[in-house]
Amino acid sequence: MEGRSRARVQHELKAEIVTVLQNSDTMRHQNSVDLFVTMLGQELGSAVELARSDVLRPWLLQLVNFCELRPDGLPCLLRCLEYVEQRSTSVAALGRLVDEWEAASFFEWADLHPLRPILMELRSSSHLARLARQASRSRTQELPWWCDTGWAVFLRLAGNNSASKEPPVSMTFLALAADHLMEEGRAEAAEQLRRWNRDQARAWGLEDRMAEWRVSGVHSEPSSPMAAYLMIQFEPDGVDSDAYYLSHWRQSDTEGWHPIPGETLHLRRAELPAEVERLIEQTEERWSDLRQPIVLEFILPWELLGEPVEWWHKESDSDSPTPLVMDYTVFVRSFERLRKAAWHRPWHNRWRQFKEQPADSHVYQNRQGHSHFHLERTLKEDEQAVCLVLSEPPGGESPSSRQEFMAGLRAGIPAMIWHRGDCSDPAFKEAVSDILQDRALGSLRDWSRKWRKNALAEGPEGWDNHVGRHLAILLDDPERKPGPPGPDHAPVQQ
Questions:
Q1: What domain range includes position 150?
Q2: What is the domain count for the chain?
Q3: By the 8 A CB rule, do 472 and 396 touch?
Q4: Closest Cα partner for 391 from 378, 377, 402, 379?
Q5: Are 119 and 236 in a shared domain?
Q6: What is the value of pTM for the model shown?
Q7: Is residue 405 part of a domain?
Q8: Predicted local confidence at residue 5, as pLDDT
Q9: Is residue 372 in some structural domain?
Q10: What is the pLDDT of residue 484?
Q11: Is the separation of the CB atoms in 94 and 22 below 8 Å?
């Protein structure tokens, strides 16, 4: 583990960080510098009061030293530059250097540079993401956008949490990278990585753990039928009736439910379909190596429940746009239910009923004109009811349709079905009769695919006349929320 001294590693990294900041667009204008410093002080919880001089570089070196002495200081520096510059080349360079600082610290300031030329040649983003997932046993689902080489991924993984009695993730990543190099016929480069890993394992007394990790095969990517989820939420502005906050979460972890939040955007209603299309395209690029099917879930407020989100388009700039339902299973969820924790106990109870006794669970079909009071009473007395077929499409101005929908939410019914145009449509009633016979929610997914597949078969010229084009299915799994529940409601990223 010989190489550069601890002091030299630290000084060189600080000098590189200063160079990146010095060359950034932010440092070219005093207003942006002031904004950057103000935000940095707020993130650190301590005002940045450093004497300014006419020479920028010494002041920046003081700033880096100031951050380095505070918990999370350098990551705060990175975040604040990203706030100001978004995805600039300076932010990418700083991200890699901050990760390198964290990695050097994790490895007790050992000289990591001998690994750099080898790992820099690994550049397939999909392959790197797969190796990171394998090395971490799916705890690392995604990587920051600046992790575009094996070197950047190794630095990022250094210090990541490992499961009990497992070796560090960065070291298992090196082992997998070495295997990949051997497969490519680059035995000398692979042996250099393995030698570094052996030396580090010996220094830390991890030889047995590395050997057990190899023998147990935990480094193999698990094969799981569990779907990956992209959850897209539209939250009403609250003031402007035509504006919404679009938030999203990605979940591809085969080991458990760990959704990753994305950015939140403030948009006009007319802008939502185009932004969803952009988001799906970005997610497909990010998940290009996934073997799992992708499920889209739209968390909709009351006024958007009539929106045919599953028939929004991909490839809308082409001659033949593709409806989302052609490529994905699509369900909607209730924004109001997620936000109101007082409704969650019966919701969880109904879901447990379905999971533990699916054969005893059934669908309840509401009849036209049935009082919402009596509907709610009936549902609450019928503990086996897990799905409600609505008599009116929700989302409009009809008070009775809103009361019907709210009765289902208050009773904890996790699934609802309706026709977006006319719930008395004979074709809809015929379709619903199929699921009434099959009873439980498991068949709901199958029937929805069948109806929508049949509608797609009619093509754009005829699918408007097929019930599958107008079928809406709300399927709310209380075990899959965007985030942990807060004191009053499930939190929403804003």
A1: 112-221
A2: 3
A3: no
A4: 402
A5: no
A6: 0.69
A7: yes
A8: 85
A9: yes
A10: 41
A11: no
